[in-house]
Amino acid sequence: MKRFFFIQFLIIFYSLPSFSQQENTPEDFVNTGLAKYLAENFEGAINDFSRAIKLKSDYADAYYQRALVKQELQDFQGAIEDYSKTIEYRPNDVDAYYYRANVKVELKDYVGAIYDFTMAIGIKPKEPEPYLQRGNMKLLTKDSKGACTDWAIAAGLGNTDAKNAIKKNCK
């Protein structure tokens, strides 16, 4: 119940016109977009993120947030486009690579997903999840040896799902 009132407060607060004569900034639109996203007003959130991008065409965070909403709405092509723009403007964004890879998995583009998981690993090599997921994709593309190697790295970084994958698939 408290969360509901907090979300309502955010929507009202960010929807109020500014008391100054200034125009809304791209950051204002991202903030209202986030509030609308939390309230599950996904189309409103997309509109606000789009308005932020219209004002600041290289605003990586607006592309990233819009991609997350598009992914939730299963607009996978739109999500890939927005994650790609995020990466264009923020090339070391490990999350953009990771989530774009997950969208590619939904589209059964396993080779593309492997590429994105590899890029995420290059940025943050101590994170086990991309190794686990890349291993899963390698198994789907008939690279069992590569899958087992990735799972071993993920397991070494503490991922229990990778340990289970090794037990099941690697001899």
Quick take:
The chain is mainly α and 171 residues long. The protein has helices spanning 2-15, 26-38, 42-55, 60-72, 76-89, 94-106, 110-123, 128-140, 144-156, 160-169. Helix 3 runs antiparallel to helix 4 (60-72), helix 5 (76-89) runs antiparallel to helix 6 and helix 9 runs antiparallel to helix 10.
Q: Care to describe what's here?
A:
There is one protein chain. The longest helix has 14 residues, at 2-15. With 171 residues, the chain is an all-alpha fold. It folds into two domains: 25-91, Tetratricopeptide repeat domain (Serine Threonine Protein Phosphatase 5, Tetratricopeptide repeat, Alpha Horseshoe); 96-171, Tetratricopeptide repeat domain (Serine Threonine Protein Phosphatase 5, Tetratricopeptide repeat, Alpha Horseshoe), CATH 1.25.40.10. Helix content is 77%, strand content 0%. The model has no long low-confidence stretch (mean pLDDT 91). Helix 1 packs antiparallel against helix 2 (26-38), helix 2 runs parallel beside helix 4 (60-72) and helix 5 (76-89) packs antiparallel against helix 6 (94-106). The protein has helices spanning 2-15, 26-38, 42-55, 60-72, 76-89, 94-106, 110-123, 128-140, 144-156, 160-169. The radius of gyration is 19 Å and the shape is elongated.
Class based on secondary structure composition and strand pairing: mainly alpha
DSSP summary, beta strand count: 0
Q: Provide the β-strand percentage band.
A: under 5%
Sketch the major β-sheet. Answer: none
CATH topology of the largest domain: Serine Threonine Protein Phosphatase 5, Tetratricopeptide repeat
Question: How many H/I helices?
Answer: 10
Mean pLDDT: 91
Mind telling me which CATH architecture of the largest domain this is?
Alpha Horseshoe
Distance between the termini: 51 Å
CATH H level, superfamily name of the largest domain: Tetratricopeptide repeat domain
Give the H and E element order: HHHHHHHHHH
Helix content: over 70%
Low-confidence stretches: none
Alpha carbon gyration radius = 19 Å
Form type = elongated
